[in-house]
Amino acid sequence: MTIRIGLIGVGFMGMTHFEAARQLNGGRITALATRSEKKRGGDWSDIQGNFGPRGSSEVDLTGVAAHADYRRILDDPEIDLVDICLPTDQHEAVTLEALAAGKHVLVEKPLRIELYPAERRLAAANKADRLLMVAHVLPFFPTFLWAREAIESGRYGKLRSAFFRRVITPPDWSNDMQDFRKLGGWGIDLHIHDNHYIGLVCGVPQGVFSRGLLAENLVNHVATNYVYDDAEKTVTAISGGIAAHGLKFAHSFEIMLERATIQFDAGTYGSDWVENRPLTLITDDGAIETPDPGGRTEWCGAFTDELQEAVDAVSSGTEPATINAQLACDALRLCVAEGQSIAAGRVVPVGT
To answer: What's the rounded Cα separation, in Å, for the pair 215 and 319?
Structure first.
């Protein structure tokens, strides 16, 4: 059985999903929707992002129906899965329409910038008996996947401490990205990657204590201590959009297990991608290794694995482990609590 995918939105992320889908097993994009006549004709040369190549002027759309109105995809009985890659502020309405049309949905992160509408979409998915999945891609990048598997396997003992960092300079490559309010601030658009990964590998905490910078009541920069029932488990993160212009993007982690420490640190300095510390495993016997995390080598390889999990979930009718909507909603709940903690200057419970 081949899962037929309808792609809605052909910006940078839509292009990324389209290219990633070429390598899928058991799934393919059979329709797309964009208001741009130029893009419907296969000229995507205006598309650019903060990684990967520019769009091509000669995209092969053979076998792909190109629509101006996304509702043509929702009305198509042959579409099994709708992949929504629209700007953040358009996620909710189209997701609800797709679920009401009886489609399984994969929607780009974040699920929403406000918590209540995000929870409303979970309820809509349950009512429709359809899968709602959120495209949090970080756990599929080879370095982060390797670290996750090291934690979950228990081969180095239980998790004792973890630190995560994700920073950018305010981007100038996309009009959508420049509108701070539409994104929910960097505390949601950027930092939600960390909160999703933390919820996945460390568990969702009971509360957060955050300090940081607010702009128009949105988080611009944040440093968080995650509060767990296990007082000996320390998890922290720093994230935001205040880096100097020469540091376009950087992320890192340090994970301490009972018998090993795992480190990684890399970023874009000027125009160069630099690994300050490649994936490194340091064990109690004194050994220091730089393991090859493996994984796909294509620029969009992690997105292929993300889409593959969605396709497999639709094929099997089972909730995916990584991109399920509840974990995405928990990540958003953490982001909201962090903003409240900064404003209040105290620990804020995360709630359920």
So the answer is: 37
Which range marks the domain in which residue 162 is found?
139-296+331-349
> What are 253's strand-pairing partners?
164, 264
Q: β-strand 207-215 against 218-227: which pairing, if any?
A: antiparallel
Query: Where residue 128 sits, what CATH number does that domain have?
Result: 3.40.50.720
Query: Does the residue 306 lie in any domain?
Result: no
pLDDT the model gives residue 179: 56
Question: Nearest 5°: CA angle at 90, between 118 and 222?
Answer: 60
* Residue 52 and residue 146 share a domain: no
Q: Are residues 187 and 203 in the same domain?
A: yes
Q: 173 pLDDT band (50/70/90 cuts)?
A: very low
Q: Whose structure tokens read 């290219």? A: 19
- Domain termination residue (choose one: 106, 137, 168): 137
Taking 90 as the threshold, does the pLDDT of residue 310 lie above it? Answer: yes
Residue 316 belongs to a domain: no
What burial class does residue 75 get, using C-beta atoms within 10 Å of its C-beta: 0-12 exposed, 13-18 middle, 19+ buried? exposed
Using CA atoms, how far residue 75 sits from 80, 102, 341, in Å, is: 11, 10, 44
In the structure encoding, which two tokens stand for residue 234, read together? Answer: 């320390």
Residue 309 lies in a domain: no
Q: What percent of the chain has pLDDT over 90?
A: 81
* Domain end call among 137, 164, 189: 137
Reported pTM: 0.93
Question: What confidence tier does 89 reach under pLDDT thresholds 50, 70, 90?
Answer: confident
Cα distances (angstroms) measured from residue 331 to each of 109, 113, 152, 310? 10, 11, 19, 19
CATH of the domain at 242: 3.30.360.10
pLDDT of residue 351: 72
Q: 25: closest CA among 285, 315, 290, 275?
A: 315
Query: Is there a contact between 139 and 217 (Cβ–Cβ < 8 Å)?
Result: no
| Sheet strands side by side (includes 348-349) | 288-289, 272-283, 260-269, 247-257, 159-168, 234-240, 218-227, 207-215, 348-349
